[in-house]
Design goal:
By secondary structure, this protein is α+β, with helices and mostly antiparallel strands. It is 24% helix and 28% strand. Among the domains are: 69-152, Alpha-Beta Plaits (2-Layer Sandwich); 166-240, no CATH class. This is DUF4283 domain protein.
Amino acid sequence: MFDWKAEMSALSIAPKAATTPLPPTLSVLPTVSFAQALTASHKSVPNAILPTPTILGETLSIKITQDLYEHGMNFCKTNLRGCLVLHKGEKLYSTKEIELKLYKHWKTAGSWHMMSLGRGYYEFFFASEMDKCIVWAAGTVSLKPGVLRLFEWSKDFNMHTQRNTHAQVWIRLLELLQEYWMEQTLREIASAVGTPLVIDNTTSKRLFGHYVRILVDMDFSRKIFHEIVGEREGFPGCRGL
C-alpha cells in the first residue's frame, strides 16, 4: 500500500541541491600601447610645438630651445668628468665596480652617482658644489689597477678629441695683506689663474703670513701668468700678487 505521508515526509528532509556561484563580472581594461605604457609617468611635450627640421646637404638640422639648454647646463654645474686609464692587459671595470672602489675614497656630505660615457670616460653627479670640490681636490684616484683622472665639466664635450691639459697646482700669493685673507676674497684672487679648490690649512688659520697657499686647477693650454693685479672699488690695481 502506498504511504503518501511517508513519501512527503522524505521529500521535506532531502538535502538541498548545491548552488554554483556565478563568476564575478570582469571589467574590460582599455588596450595600452607599449609607447603609452613607457611614458605613462611622464608628461610629454605635444608634437605640435616641436621645431621643424631643415635639410643641410646629407644631414638634418634642428633648432634647440635656448632657455632649456641653459637649464640643462645649470643642472650640470656640480658635475665632474673623469677618464679611466688602464695599461695594456689590465682588466676592464664595470661602472658598478668603479663606483664601489670610489666610495672608499670619497667622503662627501651628500650622495653622488656616476654614468659611463663610453671610451673610458665617465660623468659624476654631486649633490652640492662643496662635495664636487672635495672630490676634485682629492685628485687622481688609484684604482689598482688603473687610475681615474678627474677634470672640470665643460659644455660641448667631445670624447673623440679630448686632450687633458689640466693639472692641480699649489700657488702662492706672496706678501698678501691680512685684510685680503677672507676665504671668498682669496678664491676670487686665485680664480684669475684657474679654479680654486682648497685653501691651505695654515692659511685658513692664519698661522704663517709670508704667503697664501691655494690649490688651483689650471689649464696649461692657456698662457701662464706669474702676477695678478687685484682691484677693488675706488682703488684699481691695488696690489701685484
